Amino acid sequence: MTATITAFATSPDRGRGLARDMQVRWALEEVGQPYDVRLVSFQAMKAPAHRAVHPFGQIPTYEDGELSLFESGAIVLHIAERHLGLLPEEPNARARAIMWMFAAVDTLKAPIIEREAAWLIERDKSWFAERQIMLDGNVRKRLGELSVRLGEADWLDGDFSAADIMMVGLLRRLETTSLLDDYPNLLAYVARGKARPAFKRAFAAQYAVFTDSQPVG
Amino acid sequence: MTATITAFATSPDRGRGLARDMQVRWALEEVGQPYDVRLVSFQAMKAPAHRAVHPFGQIPTYEDGELSLFESGAIVLHIAERHLGLLPEEPNARARAIMWMFAAVDTLKAPIIEREAAWLIERDKSWFAERQIMLDGNVRKRLGELSVRLGEADWLDGDFSAADIMMVGLLRRLETTSLLDDYPNLLAYVARGKARPAFKRAFAAQYAVFTDSQPVG
């Protein structure tokens, strides 16, 4: 059975692949699993039919037979557990890969999303500039720690894993800022992720949704 | 071999059990596994020896033989995978339990932690009151959605699971606010979690660290 995921009908980032369906697409491409996509409008996302699958009214979701999931981290982990190639077989290495998935959705993500939300929602507020300095500092602190831990390694812990899908996906949210510039090894890490054929296929698929949604000019 | 976790030597919440070692202790108590605790000072947490285990200089960590982990969600999942009682055996139910663990550290946690951080760090700023209204709204939005989904159920998805440890632990951070008061089913859910003997044993263990650290008066 082919799984069905949901994605934005109208890409809020104009096809930059920052919506969280990107990580799910990438994981499915890495393990060679075809998938169907159901596009949902912002209105439909908040309607009861979608809320029945995703109680918080977001994308992505993942439906495969009787199973329906939300939370991109959980979906990527589910895919990684059911197909070879995204989690190490050795138990301790597997536990560490899952640990890095949690790091990418919790410790690392929190300051990046908070900074981004302020940029989107509070840019016209009197306090914006002063707070942004603090929020940039919070992001830099975590990037510096991640950079030290990554060192010269290609991936977070040994071979490429589901954790790298989540972490590269997160760090890409900073690509339009200068925040990654002080950490050449993180820039190289993101580039390494983006160079993977599976990333490119996933990116192209979500980009096609954006271009298809544009009025013919 | 008995696992060793780390916890704050000096409890920043005066023993209220909001530090993230609480969820790890609770999980270990649920599955009946003894554990050792290494207390770390705020200074030691930032030193190289601790950073070697936790690159972001936080607690808790979990060390068991050759394996060392950080991220409370990952540690609780690791415990749940290795011992019976915290994850359903049926594969789809198991995937949904893990999904709710991700919800507790990602979608639900982000607005709760952001609000809390503003309370701790920005209370003397001119913008605090105006922003707090917005941050309260962000929290209420997610609580409302969670309340609808939980409905009359005892736990997030079927039997008690590792997801409930993470979610109750998160919601407890709101207990000193009035934010939960509009959601009687969430209040009852938190009370249900706190009534579990394993919760009580874990709470007592972390509370003892706080009382032991007090000067004899």
From TrEMBL, chains A, B:
InterPro entries recorded: Glutathione-S-Trfase_C-like (IPR010987), Glutathione-S-Trfase_C_sf (IPR036282), Glutathione_S-Trfase (IPR040079), Glutathione_S-Trfase_N (IPR004045), Thioredoxin-like_sf (IPR036249)
Q: Which residues form the GST C-terminal domain?
A: 90-217
Lineage: superkingdom: Bacteria
Which intervals hold domain GST N-terminal? 8-87
Which Gene3D superfamilies does this chain map to?
1.20.1050.10, Glutaredoxin
For this entry, the protein name equals Glutathione S-transferase family protein
Biological classification of the source: Bacteria, Pseudomonadati, Pseudomonadota, Alphaproteobacteria, Hyphomicrobiales
